[in-house]
């Protein structure tokens, strides 16, 4: 895959100009005035065509007696939609109508008169026109505007569905969506593919086991824009550059995300009218996450098929995306067993050359197969383990079986934990999906493993046992030779199959207490302390400077702590402090963080002996903090509430970029039927930043962080703590009084007197007023009245003077 650097000039040329319809073109063919309409019964003719005839729009068949209003390439034999007004909401084949109403709105009405979609451009009156341009862009224009060619009131290019056309930009506020799959710019500014299913979400492209730079991308990309040009090159500002195999002018193309989760560039054959794939993001279909659902395995041999793991059966024979469910009772790990005799007994079923991506409870290096098996047997949360030999034995106990795959190139096996009485001779169910994924009625080979530790059905671990016993030197030599062979052939293993392991081994590890005691010089240099523990400066063996936090009042045992840490360790965002690892040895629970050298926000904001923090840095800190919290609340794999947002937990880099610390220490709440709230056993947070619902002892949700952020945002503006604000008589101001004062500022727009006087008027009043507005909305008494962190981040981004991209459009 060929990559290019960011070409700003190309983006400007492609993105800045919206093509306008030619005044000399036949208006009847590509432009309509208000009052025009087309009924679904007249679908044989298009509603509009582009001046050069390349594109048409009108009604398309989308199922039995179901139709959508779409744009398509006129010359294509298969009229694949490149834009659809009503995806997922088709209209009836009789009585439905698309209308360009006299009030200037484009609307699609179903047979019963219900409006299923509209452009929301009403109010322009009869002066507005609608046109289909040669680019495939459906636009509503106000010709009376003084702007040359008329003003664009609405355009389909701003609302893509699953396809990009040449010259159509994909921006940071847009997504291409197909079912559970989407192509979008993440909070780290990288273009990604995401599976966002009903229970689990997972990024699968680019390789999630590598950091963006190792994937050839860059996070230094505030513009966040991608464009497919007329020659078939797709360029993205995160340093991604790919070419269609038929690169060159004169070919009609589209870039589409499809129901199988892959993104492809298609080229139209001028002679046959057929579409040909000329580039694909993923070469291996099973690299896509979620295709086969939970507890199922994806295999490509040579067509894609899904099958259930042993001990599991298909949930819905018509839809593999729902995956498989266990055919045995699952142990509730939260319930303590009365005695060891009452604990269930298990055995393991082997699936050769098979693995499940991610969800490792931990990983163990240089261990025997028997030891790995014993760990999973004794760990309630473990439902299987992956074991592979690559010069050494590596063990990965699994807490979830999701995104399973089988590949002859994978140098390991998965061992599924099933009850001792499970009949391994009964093969797992496999069938053909009716949702577009071909699943052949064949299953992987299943070999039952012995239930006795230290023995194996295939002898994989015998070399280890002999080597450790020192009995047979010959087997030692064979073991070494085998390890070297694996290492020498490592490059032949597809990177997608190794992604999860590289992430764990390369960026996140478990430390011993002795290692961290030595790294910190016996915990000598304290650099911070808070309610969750004391932080010390440390230096690891490789010279890396880290922050080591000794945790206090940690609930649960080692197993629960490990399980939570495997989740926290996968959380990664430019505005979050990176966690390098942890230690869990009995009473010792420690976290190892990246060292952020410029101290915390409170020291820069409230220390009157320091030079006042300039406005530009204040705004960047506010925006960065909002983006970090938005990621925790809305985009990371597990839904995370911080519960203690305050200036002390916002660390600053040398460039004054914000990094949120101490996230993940509160209870993690999964997205399930119980809703996005949870009950903590005790109040958590810091006085002055805690939302009112904490005092009411009711279940809390992410809006407690929103409240705390509102306090911090106001403190960034005024340069002092809200809890220190007093009346002229020296009495402490109540929150109701502060809110009333903020409303007056918002109503009058006179924000300058409120801003930190040390700035001496050096500020952006527009940004300051917006920050006060946001702060006021965050401090609402009722949590439902507060905005989300995602909304806040978008508003602050729109006001960012340094952001190269236009303001967010809702």
From TrEMBL:
Sorted alphabetically, the Gene Ontology BP terms of this entry are:
recognition of pollen; response to other organism
Q: Which SMART domains match?
A: B_lectin (SM00108), S_TKc (SM00220)
Entries under InterPro entries matching the protein: Bulb-type_lectin_dom (IPR001480), Bulb-type_lectin_dom_sf (IPR036426), EGF (IPR000742), Kinase-like_dom_sf (IPR011009), Prot_kinase_dom (IPR000719), Protein_kinase_ATP_BS (IPR017441), S_locus_glycoprot_dom (IPR000858), Ser/Thr_kinase_AS (IPR008271)
Entry binding sites for ATP: 550
Q: Does the keyword ATP-binding apply?
A: yes
Q: Where in the cell is it found?
A: Membrane
Q: What is this protein called?
A: Receptor-like serine/threonine-protein kinase
The record lists the lineage as: Eukaryota, Viridiplantae, Streptophyta, Embryophyta, Tracheophyta
């Amino acid at each position: 895959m060929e990559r290019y650097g960011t070409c700003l000039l190309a983006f400007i040329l492609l993105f800045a100009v919206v093509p306008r319809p030619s005044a000399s073109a036949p208006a009847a063919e590509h432009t309509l005035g208000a009052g025009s309409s087309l009924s679904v019964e007249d679908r044989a003719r298009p509603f509009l065509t582009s001046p050069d005839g390349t594109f048409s729009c009108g009604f398309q068949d989308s199922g039995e007696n179901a139709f959508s209003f779409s744009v398509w390439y006129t010359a294509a034999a298969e009229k694949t939609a490149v834009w659809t007004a009503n995806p997922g909401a088709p209209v009836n084949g009789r009585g439905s109508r698309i209308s360009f109403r006299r009030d200037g709105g484009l609307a699609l009405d179903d047979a019963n008169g219900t409006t299923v979609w509209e452009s929301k451009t009403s109010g322009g009156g009869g002066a507005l026109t609608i046109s289909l341009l040669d680019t495939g862009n459906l636009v509503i224009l106000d010709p009376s505007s003084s702007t040359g060619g008329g003003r664009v009131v609405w355009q389909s290019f701003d609302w893509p569905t699953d396809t990009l056309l040449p010259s159509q930009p994909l921006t940071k506020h847009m997504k291409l969506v197909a079912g559970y799959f989407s192509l979008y710019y993440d909070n780290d500014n990288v273009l990604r593919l995401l599976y966002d299913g009903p229970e689990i979400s997972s990024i699968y492209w680019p390789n999630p086991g590598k950091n963006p730079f190792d994937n050839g991308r860059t996070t230094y990309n505030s513009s966040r824009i991608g464009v497919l040009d007329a020659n078939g090159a797709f360029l993205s500002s995160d340093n991604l550059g790919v070419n269609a195999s038929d690169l060159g002018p004169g070919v009609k193309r589209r870039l589409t995300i499809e129901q199988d989760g892959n993104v492809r560039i298609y080229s139209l054959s001028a002679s046959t009218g057929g579409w040909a794939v000329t580039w694909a993001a993923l070469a291996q279909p099973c690299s896509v996450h979620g295709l086969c659902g939970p507890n199922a395995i994806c295999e490509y041999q040579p067509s894609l098929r899904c099958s259930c793991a042993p001990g599991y059966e298909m949930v819905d024979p018509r839809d593999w995306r729902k995956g498989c469910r266990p055919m045995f009772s699952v142990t509730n790990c939260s319930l303590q067993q009365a005695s060891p005799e009452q604990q269930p007994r298990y055995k393991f079923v082997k699936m050769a050359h098979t693995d499940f991506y991610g969800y490792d409870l931990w990983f163990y290096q240089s261990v025997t197969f028997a030891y790995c098996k014993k760990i999973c047997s004794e760990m309630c949360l473990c439902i299987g383990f992956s074991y592979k030999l690559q010069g050494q034995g590596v063990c990965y106990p699994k807490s979830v079986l999701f995104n399973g795959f089988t590949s002859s190139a994978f140098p390991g096996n998965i061992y599924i934990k099933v009850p001792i009485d499970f009949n391994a001779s009964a093969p797992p169910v496999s069938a053909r999906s009716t949702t577009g994924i071909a699943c052949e009625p064949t299953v992987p080979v299943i070999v039952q493993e012995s239930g006795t530790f230290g023995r194996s059905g295939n002898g994989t671990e015998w070399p280890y046992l002999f080597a450790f016993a020192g009995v047979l030197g010959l087997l030692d030599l064979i073991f070494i030779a085998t390890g070297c062979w694996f290492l020498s052939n490592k490059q032949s293993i597809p990177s997608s199959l190794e992604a999860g392991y590289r992430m764990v081994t390369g960026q996140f590890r478990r430390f011993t207490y002795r290692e961290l005691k030595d790294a910190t010089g016996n915990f000598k240099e304290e650099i911070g302390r808070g309610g969750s523990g004391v932080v010390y400066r440390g230096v690891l063996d490789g010279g890396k400077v880290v922050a080591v936090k000794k945790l206090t009042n940690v609930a649960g045992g080692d197993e629960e702590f490990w399980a939570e840490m495997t989740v926290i360790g996968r959380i990664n965002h430019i505005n979050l402090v990176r966690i390098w690892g942890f230690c869990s040895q009995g009473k010792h629970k420690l976290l190892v963080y990246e060292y952020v050298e410029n101290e915390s926000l409170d020291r820069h904001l409230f220390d009157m002996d320091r030079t006042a923090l300039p406005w530009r840095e204040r705004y960047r800190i506010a925006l960065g903090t909002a983006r970090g919290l938005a990621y925790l609340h809305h985009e990371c794999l597990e839904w995370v509430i911080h519960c203690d947002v305050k200036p002390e937990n916002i660390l600053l880099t040398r460039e004054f970029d914000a990094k949120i610390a101490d996230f993940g220490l509160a209870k993690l709440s999964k997205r399930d039927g119980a809703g996005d709230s949870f009950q903590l056993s005790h109040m958590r947070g810091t006085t002055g930043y805690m939302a009112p619902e904490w005092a009411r002892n009711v279940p809390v949700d992410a809006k407690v962080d929103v409240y705390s952020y509102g306090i911090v945002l106001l403190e960034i503006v005024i340069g002092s703590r809200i809890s220190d604000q007093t009346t002229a008589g020296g009495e402490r101001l109540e929150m109701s009084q502060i809110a009333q004062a903020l409303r007056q500022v918002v109503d009058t727009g006179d924000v300058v007197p409120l801003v930190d006087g040390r700035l001496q008027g050096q500020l952006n009043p527009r940004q300051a007023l917006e920050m006060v507005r946001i702060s006021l909305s965050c401090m609402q008494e009722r949590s439902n009245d507060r905005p989300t962190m995602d909304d806040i981040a978008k508003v602050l981004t729109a006001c960012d003077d340094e952001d190269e991209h236009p303001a967010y459009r809702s």
